[in-house]
Amino acid sequence: MKSASASPPYRYLDAIELADILGLSLRTITLRAKHRPWLLPPRAELRDRELLRWRQDTVDLWLDENSSASLKF
Questions:
Q1: By residue range, what is the domain housing residue 16?
Q2: Assigned domain for 72 exists
Q3: What are the angstrom distances between the C-alpha of 68 and each of 10, 16, 18, 46?
Q4: How many structural domains does the chain have?
Q5: What is the pTM of this model?
Q6: DSSP codes, 5-42
Q7: Which of 8, 2, 11, 4 is nearest to 53 (CA)?
Q8: Do the domain assignments include residue 44?
């Protein structure tokens, strides 16, 4: 039986980690998250709506689906 404190089967990425993965600056990530969210993977749904987090599996899937498109427009 799993305990209530067990970690989820996925990992959350912060804006710095997402910037590294996408090859963008932290400033670009934060600006896109606020003004052009469609240019980034979907954000994780968390209670704190101000917290920028992305699920690793969602980012991986988004990258697979958008690999032919340019990420730097």
A1: 12-64
A2: no
A3: 25, 23, 19, 30
A4: 1
A5: 0.76
A6: TPPPSS-EE-HHHHHHHHT--HHHHHHHHHH-GGGSPP
A7: 11
A8: yes
